[in-house]
Amino acid sequence: MTEFAIFTTTSEGRIATWNPGAEHAFGYSRSEVIGADFGLIFTAEDRAAGIPDAEMRIAIERGRLDRDCWHMRKDGTRFWGTNTVQPLIDGEGRRHGFTKIVRDSTERYEAAIALRQSEERFRLLVESVDHYAMFSIGPDGLITLWNSGAEQIFRYRHAEIIGAPFSKLFTAGDTARGLPEVELRRAAELGQVENERWQLRGDGSRFIARRRITLLKAGSLGAAQGFSVTAHDVTESRANEKTMRKQAFYDELTGLPNRALFVEHLQRTIAHTKRHAGSRFAVLFLDLDQFKTINDGLGHVLADQLLTQIGQRLRACVRPEDVVARIGGDEFTVLVSSIASTKEIIGLTDRIHAAMEPPIHVEMHEARATTSIGVALGTDAYDRSEDILRDADIAMYEAKALGRANTVIFDDRMRASVVSRHAVESDLRHAVERDELFLEYQPIVALGDLRLVGFEALVRWKHPTRGILQPAEFIQTAEQTGLIVPIDQWVLRTACAQLRAWQADALDAVPLTMSVNLSAKQFSHNDLCQRVQRSLAESHVAASSLNLEITESTMMERSETVASVLAELRALQVDIHIDDFGTGYSSLSYLRMLPVSAVKIDRSFISGMQANKERGEMVRAIVSLAHNLRLTVVAEGVEAVEELRALQELSCEYAQGFLFARPLSASAAGALVASRVPLAFSVALRDVANPSSERVIASGPERRRIPGTAANRAPKPARPSSAANS
Ligand code: C2E
Ligand code: MG
Ligand code: MG
To answer: Which one, of 385, 393, 378, lies nearest residue 328 by Cα?
Structure first.
């Protein structure tokens, strides 16, 4: 064994035996040292100080001596040796020399020195720093050092804390969970841990401390000597980070999660659904209807308040675990994390639509908002959040196309229809020239005696491959691409020509009117008036027979140009009707200034106006307001006899709706004109639950009134608008 140097000496200190370990440790061969004074292994200082003799003396006195000291090698270098000296006693108890065992422990010694030095350095540092808490902990977990920074940060004075356990700095909960011990154990294993933790102050208050706990060790081999800890207070900056995180993940206006956070939740839900077969969720994509108009009408500040209130209403519709986010200007999303059935989602979307109905009060204003909702049902087929969001978005667009306040649930066919939206655009370019468009005509009746007074021309597209398309499927694209201008132009010419033909056929009939829809786009073309004039001239139709329908939102969006164009049109004797009235935010004082003849109350107010008290009130208010402004009122979308009666009670002048007739082909409408049947007859007979336009045509020439209506009310003028502005 060479690790230990073992040798013996005589009582006088002469070397008697010398093992290989000694040869290795001291560099002297056996033959070199036998008989020499053992003092040669001591340093000159120790020899001068009489240490070799002192060692022997103490070993005799105590029976054994253990001590560490410097030793000299033959080459003059030193090493730190741990040595044991014992007297050699024979059988009779006589001492005849000593054994000495020496082990080189330089490495340990240096580590100890280093530790002492670093402790010294730490102490200096500790004492010189105020804003950092620095303290140390012994291997027993008790606090051994405490600087003035620690006094300030932890609010324990030096005298109070020295000797106290490390756990004193932890909250009761953390201590109960054994956190202080866990931390020290981890620091012992890893050498250092760094983290942030709530810490308890001497006065009982708490703060977030960023701390670094370092194991103090006597060199690489040495035993743990305890820990040094540095800590500082980061409560404030963490609070800032919290607000920063809030800004990064929450919508500032509504306080709802933003798109980033929504996507995070969605991703988690997708992952959960993959793990739990059969679990389902749903994503709702909401877009407020005609928000631009609301925004323009209210101004940004109030519109913002409206959005906030809408956010609150949405939140109130869902369960606490569902996520409601605002992901864009007027776009909201809802993540319904677990659903049992599609019916449940329908229930939710119905609740949302209902929640939107009551007017929203922003300061002095009363505003109304409806929303279109697209729903994508989440199954484990979805991998990516963007896919399901896209599908919900597609469904939302379909809902928009149906009009206001609708819900559409995504199905795979829709994806194809989105692809075809692009196709629509290129096909639409040719639709007019290839003569693929045609018109249907929906009767408009006077509510007093249910006489037919005119038609609204509604465009349809006989697509070469997709069959007959409704306006909802292409008008939006047409407007976006500007193709609406030639289309409306065609509609205007065709409708005027048709009206002229009917008028010629029925020479003695009351003059019929034709209502034609005008897109907002038309108003950016300054030749609109000339084109209208030209169409009238070509068809020989009197300007007074033509009603142009402009939606309320168009009026508001293009208020600058609209006023002057309308004035020109009015000068031609053409009547202007405001379409979809009630859905926009037109100020009535503004309407009064425009040369408008009539308002068409939007279908969404008429349908269910009997059952829904608020809608009924709304209709009543619109009618009386319009009448005050000397405007004629046309009710759109009348489907039930009760609605008809209610409108008659309100003295609403005209109506249009499936109750009377669906939009009819030119020939069916022509037959109706020729038969001169009052539509009252068909209404009395028809099965309201199963409206069919054919019945209207099939009805006989007899004139009857439906029971319970204002039977003897004086007939209104044939032209819906002639009552106003005259
Ligand atoms: P609009 O001008 O408000 O036309 C009334 C719409 O309501 C028509 O839908 C009509 O079929 C429908 N309708 C009428 N009565 C009832 C009813 O009792 N119940 C229900 N559920 N619906 C009823 P359509 O034909 O699908 O037209 C939709 C919209 O497309 C029109 O709304 C109009 O804004 C636009 N549009 C139609 N033709 C043209 C056109 O030639 N040019 C322009 N620019 N837009 C057009
Ligand atoms: Mg219309
Ligand atoms: Mg309308």
So the answer is: 393
Burial 74-94 (b: 16+ CB within 10 A, else e): eeeeebbbbbbbbbeeeeeee
Ligand 3 centroid – CA 691 distance (Å):
19
pLDDT at 350: 93
Q: Which residues pair with 136 in a beta bridge?
A: 145, 228
454 within 8 A of 444, measured Cβ to Cβ: yes
Compute the distance from residue 458 Cα to the ligand 1 centre, in Å.
6
Distance, CA of 585 to CA of 27 (rounded, Å): 105
Closest-CA residue to 392 (of 374, 408, 418, 412)? 374
Helix (H, G, I), strand (E, B) or coil at 138: coil
CA angle, 139 as apex, 133 and 141 as ends, to 5°? 60
Residue 518 has a CB neighbour count (10 Å cut-off) of 23
Give CA–CA dist 546/512, Å, rounded. 9
- The DSSP letter of residue 299 is -
Q: How confident is the model at residue 426 (pLDDT cuts 50, 70, 90)?
A: confident
Write down the residue that tokens 């977030």 correspond to. Answer: 208
Distance CA 483, CA 476 (A): 10
Handedness of CA 202, 207, 209, 213 (dihedral sign): positive
Amino acid (1-letter code) at residue 3 = E
Each residue's pLDDT tens digit, 334-392: 999 888 888 899 999 999 999 999 999 988 888 889 999 999 998 888 888 988 998 99
Q: How far apart, in whole angstroms, are the C-alpha atoms of residue 579 and residue 583?
A: 9
Task: Give the pLDDT confidence score for residue 447 in this predicted structure.
Answer: 92
Q: What's the farthest any 2 CA atoms get from each other in the chain?
A: 159
pLDDT at 681 (0 to 100): 43
- Asked if residue 143 lies in contact with residue 163, where contact means CB atoms within 8 angstroms, the answer is yes
Cα separation, 72 vs 44, whole angstroms = 9
Pocket test residue of 488, 517, 643, 686 for ligand 1, highest count of atoms within 8 A of CB? 517
- Show the ligand 1 pocket: residues with CB < 6 angstroms: 442, 458-459, 470-472, 475, 484, 488, 491, 517, 519, 549, 579-580, 603, 636-639, 656-658, 663
| Whole-number percent of the chain with pLDDT over 70 | 85
Tokens, residue 276: 């739990």
Domains and CATH numbers, the chain: 4-104 (3.30.450.20), 110-238 (3.30.450.20), 250-410 (3.30.70.270), 424-676 (3.20.20.450)
For residues 273 and 379, is the Cβ–Cβ distance under 8 A? Answer: yes
How far is the centre of ligand 3, averaged over its atoms, from the C-alpha of 217 (Å)?
A: 84
More confident residue, 675 or 104: 104
Short-list 309, 421, 439, CA closest to 362: 309
Which whole number is the average pLDDT over 505-510?
61
Tokens of 439: 């018109």
Q: Is the pLDDT at 414 greater than 90, yes or no? A: no
**Residue to mutate, 456, 475, 498, 547, ligand 1, most ligand atoms under 8 Å from C-beta:** 475
What does the pLDDT read at residue 427? Answer: 83
Tokens standing for residue 567: 């004035």
Provide the pLDDT for residue 722: 39
- pLDDT tens per residue across span 13-51: 999 999 999 999 999 999 999 999 999 999 988 888 888
Per-residue pLDDT for 107 more than 60? Answer: yes
If you measure from the C-alpha of residue 601 to the centroid of ligand 1, how many angstroms do you get, rounded to a whole number? 13
